[in-house]
Amino acid sequence: MTSIILYSSSNKQGNTAQSVRALAQQLQADTLFLDDYDIGDYCYNHTNRGDDFRSLFRALLNYDHIVFASPVYWYAVTPRMKAFFDRITDFMDDETLRPELRKLRTKEFSILSNSINETAPACFTEMIQKTCEYLGMTCRESIHHQYPYEGDK
């Protein structure tokens, strides 16, 4: 089974990256830093179809297992990760793209999060879990790492 970890954070080498590296080694997974890509917000008129989202999404379809990794920012995923999830709607809006979207039905997903708390808040994991399950994906696991608050370093 092939795995990829799709992650986002305001600090490319921070706690989330540390958790991603450890899990990637364990799973022998590829990693992809979402913030390195140009992904616009969802737009009803699809004026942003020239950005990186569609090619990135198609690349993920080559994996059996997708891990979505993000720090917990105010009970939510990072803005870039949220934009990624919102943009999946591009494939729902266009009948010619829906067959590609349906490929998610054969995929597994996991959630990797981190914060100063022992567990991720339910609203954080539920957004990812409910979206992925709506798309027909199967949840493998949810992993949370607690890191101490280090202030404004």
UniProtKB/TrEMBL annotation:
Keyword entries, A-Z: Flavoprotein, FMN
Presence of the UniProt keyword Methyltransferase in the record: no
Any one GO MF annotation of this record: oxidoreductase activity
InterPro entries in UniProt: Flavoprotein-like_sf, FMN_Rdtase-like_dom, ISF_SsuE-like
Keyword Chloroplast: no
A family per Pfam: FMN_red
Coiled-coil segments on the chain, per record: none
NADPH-dependent FMN reductase-like domain segment(s): 2-113
Domain of life where this protein originates: Bacteria
Name of the protein this chain belongs to: FMN reductase
Species assigned in the record: Pseudoalteromonas rubra
